[in-house]
Amino acid sequence: MSWLGLLRRVSRPAAPGLLLAVVAGVGAAGAGVGLMATAAWLISRAALHPPVLHLMVAIVAVRAFGISRGVLRYVERLAGHDGALRVLAELRVRLFARLELLAPAGLAGFRRADLVQRLVTDVDAVLDLLTRVVLPYAVTTVVGAGAVALVTTLSPVAGLTLAAGLVVVGVVVPWLQAAAARRADGRLAPLRGELAAGTVDLLHGLPDLIAYGATGAQLARLGDVDSRLREAERRSSLAAGASAAVTALATGLSVLVGLGAGAVAVRAGTLSGELLAVVVLTPLAVFEAAAGLPAAAQRFAGARSALRRLADVIAAPAPVPEPAHPLEVGPGPHTVRLDRVTAGWAPGRTAVRDFDLVLPPGRRVALVGPSGSGKSTVAALLVRFLDPTAGAVRIDGVDLRDLPGDRVRQLVGYLSEDAYLFDTTIEENLRIARRDATGAQVRAALAAARLLDWVDGLPDGPATLVGEHGVQLSGGQRRRLALARALLADFRILILDEPTEHLDDDTAAALTRDLLAAAEDRTVLLITHRLDGLSGVDEIVTLAGPAGAHADRGAGPGAVAAGSGAVSVAVTA
Q: Which residues form the ABC transporter domain (predicted)?
């Protein structure tokens, strides 16, 4: 998608408001020109002391132009910003909807901090594009044409000079400015995104950077990005200053030529003295409206770059396209089956190959294997974060590719190893899963996750803040709270991905027992690299081979995969 196509799409709902803003802007600028021209004629005519009745029309016109200018300017601002904010709302909704379809597999090419920069700064650039680029150019084009026609009828030389000045200010200066500063303005948005991403990396990775003595190198990289950003902004400012100087020069030249040509016409008797003031002073009002065009053109370069970055997000291909004719599954209990599935996160890179797995209702299966064997890929397939490149994943015989992604995730819950906790209270972190849950249901979920006694012992109870990323909680408490959230959502099929990562053996074994007990009669797929503490599962499946290419089957809960096939081990408590 091109940046212009994206702008057209998001601007369509706000088109009436933007059109009203253009009409009101033309009226306000036209009233300003009319006020200047009429006031100039009135002052010149009044100096000749005519009967006051000869001045009444001009006096009324000055009042009308003065009042309407303020009113129409207010309408322009109101309608223009209302339309622009509607466009921003539409654009943000489209972006968030697209990100929902892309996450997580489709976001591999984007950095988180840079995505935030796109969602905030780049989206705000669209507001500048509409209110400070499109509107000024539309208004100045219409008003400038009318003013040139007016002055040309009085003095052709002055009119042509005014037209040339407007062309220089509105076309030539922006073109030269763009040629001189295209690289600077076009690089502003990417450099800001790079600086934001580097700053977030520095803050989040500071302990590791200090430990490895790499802080100086990271700061040097950030300093280099900051220097390039400041240089781009300096070039942009130089271009803006030069354009302002040219605008002032064009204004003065138009006034001087108008004065000279008008004086000659007055002496020749082809122009009255009262109208000379109109010829001389009208360009001042016109260039007041046109003065912002060079700055508008400069903003256009940055806004276009920002829109291109947003269009890249919108145009990114979805890794799991929604079905054109979605199917439905029954109320359950549900059976999940993976039939000779092959999948990977990137083209040409296979994470699992020819993998089979069956999850009957109420079955507890442990999927075991070393890091990189494809365990998390299997989990992503089950919640349709990924689609297989070969084979099929089915629920009750229905291919997941025939189900909407949201429907799949209503049936299958995924508790990842890095489940996110929001910087809010314990209760609010739970209610993310089910906003209409009662207090009793929240307490039941906490009790099932073995957290209720601890929460009740806190001074603020469920209203206790967990801090950013759950920093106020221990590792085990964070995992239990994430489990309570999954239990509150009441998924009938639950995937637990490395729930005991970074915990010691005793704590990991105790947490595994509690997790399986809390799951009650749900179907559970426990993903882990530990072979101990799995007495609570019904079956152990071991993934092995390079990049999890094969799933091996053998006998014994501690069996090590060797060769192709699949290891399925029945376990009794």
A: 336-570
